[in-house]
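Hello K.,

You asked for the raw outputs rather than the summary table, so here they are, unedited. I folded two proteins back to back in the same session to keep the settings identical. This is the first:
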Amino acid sequence: MNSSFKYATLLFLLVFGGYMSSQNKTCVVKLKLTNEAGKVIELVAIKLNQFNVGFTNKYGEFQTTVPKDKSYALSTHHLSFESYITKLKPGINDTISLLIKLHEKTTILADVDVFATNKPETLVGKPNYGIYDFDFYEDKLVLLTSKNELKRSEIRLTDYSGKEFMSLPIPPEAGEAQKFFHDYLGNTNLLCKDTILRIEISDNFFLITGITKKEYERSLKPVNDTANGNYYYNDQNPDYPAFNYYYLSKSNPKQHKLLYNVINRSLMDLYNFEYYYLPPRGQLEARRLADAFKVDKKVIAALMSGFTRSKFYEPLYAPLFVLKDTVCLFNHYNDRIFHFDKENVLIDSVTINYHHPKNWHTWKKQLFVDDTENKVYALFKNGANVSLKLIDHHTGQIKGVHKFANITADKIKIKDGYAYYTYRPFESTQEKFLYREVIRISKE
């Protein structure tokens, strides 16, 4: 009997052990990512054997399940941190937990607080999604798409005929998608409600990685252009009617020099008078806050009164572009274009008045540069009619106008003599399609 019991026990162990081993063929991989100070990092892309398998959540955590009988190359990707790569061999383990500390990258500005007719061409148009924004990458298009709203949106990579190579949903942790931002390095970034994403493209594939808001605000957003061995950037705050342009030598990243100060003097007078409109108790509070934050009391007063959110205030628009090797500053507040040479010395300035049209509200405070053709266009809207006026940046004069065939063209971008835009016909069930039309300049 004892022998039979031992045999039955052994048989049970063999069967149960085989059963358990057959049920535990997978391993749970748990990751937690922090910086060197221990602060968690969200939206880090995780790859296994070159395949993107997901992103860390707001707690810096990620979890996935993998087969035990394989080994993996695990890597992390985030624009603001160095990548981490390791070999993952589950073996007999049911769970693998890793705490990964990423090293922050250093950045260059870390120290700085044609058709015969004008018929539009449909490039991408699908019945199952609309195009809410787009950007260019070599001979391809990067599209922000969604069905009805941007809360659930995707990024797609296509060619100019609409052939799709790849698509990825935007991770919910990023928040609602807003628009693309093409930075001075030539990269496409997606601004979302809660974070910024970088679309890194290689051949017909792309990867979505996160960018810290600190890096975006300090090292990407302020930089207007690069040329002549310099970076050109600004310190604009939308809630203040003056800002500066600087240039920074690539060979000496600590050498920052002032290029020009932009100021709307009439708006500044109104801005400063807000302090005197406050009641005595409000003026006292403005002085107290000014002392606490080491800023001018008039700045505090304008923010307290809500002046920068009123119909009387508009953020300044005075863009800087590098056209060939000439730096051009379009200062709409003293009605001039300033030209600077390779040494950033002022060459001359010319008068402009295109921003003072008879119907003042038709000027939409937006300039476009066609880098290939070295041309500058100003955007105008009169009701539903959209047009571009060609501005001679040498003389400041209007050379002609292009009127869009699709009158409510939106999200306009210029490249190689074409105007690209999204459009949905009025009172149509059609989704937003992507179009382009050759720019044809005629007399006003």
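The second followed immediately with the same parameters:
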Amino acid sequence: MNSVYIIAEMSANHCGDKKLAKKIIEEAKACGADAVKIQTYTADTITLDCKNDYFKISGGTLWDNRYMYDVYKSASTPWEWQKELKDYADKIGIDFFSTPFDYTAVDFLESLNVQMYKIASFEAIDFPLIKYTASKMKPMIISVGISTLEEIQEAINTCKSVGNNDITILKCTSSYPAKVEDMNLLTIKDMIERFSPQGVKIGLSDHSISIVPPICAVAMGARVIEKHFTLDRSLGGEDSGFSLNKEEFKLMVEKVRETELAIGNINYNVNENLRKGARSLFVVKDIKKGEKFTPENVRSIRPNYGLHPRYYSDIIGKTSNKDLKFGDALRKDDITDT
């Protein structure tokens, strides 16, 4: 991945409509995304159909006071769609992959020959799942929104333990939606310093409805951006409240690409053409041969055709060896050395 890899997360925004799912893939491609990602689970593979308080959602999310099983049942992408969706993505030329939530999902996705895997934040501490997924030797992208620093390292080590070294860690604020002021994007720079020497790439999984965090993240060195994507938030869907619509997503992609261009490379080269507009030493009052240079007859002004301004103090008090006119660019051979 040379340029920043931009992932449009479909998640539950298909609203249970396969035609809408295909349209999301189509529009993600049109908006400039490199990939569209889905999630592969059923309510039964991700949680239990249990109505005690352990399974009631809380914490300031869009789903507070609902039971996990009910939300996941509503939000899941039917497995029988997923081959058709991948085939459609392949046909129109956009990468397609998924987040597995258990071993059966990994096996199913292997049968579809997906090209990479994403591990969600809340599964990033499930090291057996990470190990099994990484053992398929596909690139691994892992969100670490609820992981400690030690757990992030353990997730990396788990991938490497099975010989999988293609690892990307995504900074993530696991709030739904996430507030911009809670993003703490400086963490990305720290993650790069800590994990890049291990060959790990760093990116951002963003659950805010702003395009600013991805732009900032790219400026800090993020190589992957994941953002939830919907055609229109008014269509509903469990994740619509923190998803960008197609106009917003397209603008985000444009600004990320513009940011990449602005970052460019380390370059201290000087544009000599532009440098002609800089300052240099000029004669600002006629000077006779043998006359001394003074602040009244020599100044540092624009443009840059005379001596460098660094020589100003050296020449004041020295003598001109020729007649000089107002507006002449001062040269080294105009000056008597003694």
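The chain has a mean pLDDT of 95.

Happy to rerun anything if the numbers look odd on your end.

Regards,
P.
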